[in-house]
Amino acid sequence: MPKSGTIKASRRNVLKGVGMAAVGASLSPAGAALAQGTAPAAAPKGPKLLEMEGKAKLAVLGDKPLVAETQAELMDDDVTPIDKFFIRNNGLVPDAPADAKAWKIKIDGEVEKPMDITLGDLMSRFPNVSYKMMLECGGNGRAFFSPEARGNQWTNGGAGCAEWTGVRLADVLKAAGVKPSAVYTGQYGADPHLSGDATKASISRGVPIAKAMEPHTLIVFKMNGKDLPLIHGGPVRLVVPGWAGSSSTKWLTRIWVRDKIHDGPGMGGFSYRLAKTPIVPGSKGDEKDTVILEAMPVRAVISFPADGAKLASKKLDLRGHAWAGENEVKTVDISTDYGVTWKPAKVDAPPNKYAWQRFTASVDLPSAGYYEVWAKATDSKGVTQPFVAGNWNPQGYGGNPINRIRVLVAT
Ligand SMILES: Nc1nc2c(c(=O)[nH]1)N[C@H]1C(S)=C(S)[C@@H](COP(=O)(O)O)O[C@H]1N2
Ligand SMILES: [Mo]
Asked: Per the count of CB atoms within 10 A, which of 194, 201, 368, 409 is most buried?
């Protein structure tokens, strides 16, 4: 972890206090979406904070199902600790099994040897591997769309980089013998539907066979070296890194190898789909003109200082993380003058493919006063972040405008 430098990211430094009231009142709380223009949003309420054993006070976006995002200033660790990791449920949380190793996963469909394998067998039969990899909700960045898109209003905190340990899905599928007719996976979890109807899956997504066979796609049973917590899909889940998190099925019970694109709940309508050609923002759109969202786009998040920080010095040592779905982040640029000039940050190499990358920069703010600090990442394909969330779509996927924080230099 880099040193904090001259300022510390603590709640005390977030503009809220007496004396800063004039500015504080006009700054929205950290975690709330920044207005599109320079005029600060009118004193919005702070988010409701999560109260859950083993979890930090994340920003609650929804209660039923439970959805909570990680505030940008909690996205500072090289590996996201379990307590700071975002939560996205579509249904209810199933009961923890009495015996995790006896948990069964069915592999069927377009395979030579369908199987029911226990978690215990899975762990001992196949090589165990660990990678630091991003899991990011498909809706991350939705709050930046204008007009508002339907769904949980994620800012940038529907993402985290944990160290996942498990077995390669490819090894398991190879053992089952994938038939040439295999096209897609259809994945099921044990979480009951919100209605309580036991015949309904809360969500059931899948990925093309090529992504399922990718060596980083894992059936996971450990997170940061600990048994996978129930809230994150324990005892066993999939992690399909770099792609919309919805295909990283928690509480995994079945992988049905399909001979066509899977059609479970969450695969149809506008769910996890982007507009094929740009549509009028706010319009209804047509399902036929959409494509399935696969890899997530490039994004940078400043984790220090916090949005709204009061700085004691004009010299700012900032840092954050950037990631880019299937790609590596090549550069991160910083602007303190609303995008007129940009200065490159230092970007660290990822420890392995699909891990987020640390960026650091030292910027000299010219005077005391109010500034916005902007960060923009560019990936290995040369794709960068837009100034605003473009490519509007009814359910708000792919929103990745440049990251902006507000700071006040007090000297
Ligand atoms: N069984 C099941 N798996 C699921 C979900 C779910 O609701 N049920 N939510 C998905 C979505 S949309 C995301 S973004 C990730 C979130 O994982 P997390 O809660 O561990 O952060 O899990 C995915 N896997
Ligand atoms: Mo998600």
From this structure: 201
Centre of ligand 1 to C-alpha 9, Å, is: 30
HSE at residue 244, side-chain half, CA atoms within 13 A, is 21
Where does 189-339 have alpha helices with state H?
209-212
> pTM score, two decimals?
0.92
Query: Which residue is listed with tokens 């093309």?
Result: 208
- Report the separation in Å between the CA atom of 250 and the middle of ligand 1, taken as the mean of its atom positions: 6
CA–CA dist 173, 213 (Å, integer): 8
- Burial annotation 65-84 (CB, 10 A radius, 16+ → b, else e): bbbbbbbbbbbbbbbbebbb
**Quick one: pLDDT at residue 44?**
52
Two tokens at 68? 């909570």
Q: Among the bound ligands, name the one nearest to the CA of residue 87.
A: 1
Nearest to 293 by CA among 69, 141, 161: 141
CA 176 – CA 234 distance, rounded (Å): 23
Among all bound ligands, the one having the nearest atom to the CA of 234 is 1
**Sequence-distant (≥ 6) Cβ neighbours of residue 394 within 8 angstroms:** 149, 150, 270, 284, 285
Tens of pLDDT, residue by residue over 288-322, are: 999 999 999 999 999 999 999 999 999 999 999 99
Contacts 24+ apart (CB under 8 A), 197-203: 200/265, 201/91, 201/264, 201/265, 202/65, 202/89, 202/90, 202/91, 202/92, 202/265, 203/90, 203/91, 203/246, 203/249, 203/264, 203/265, 203/266
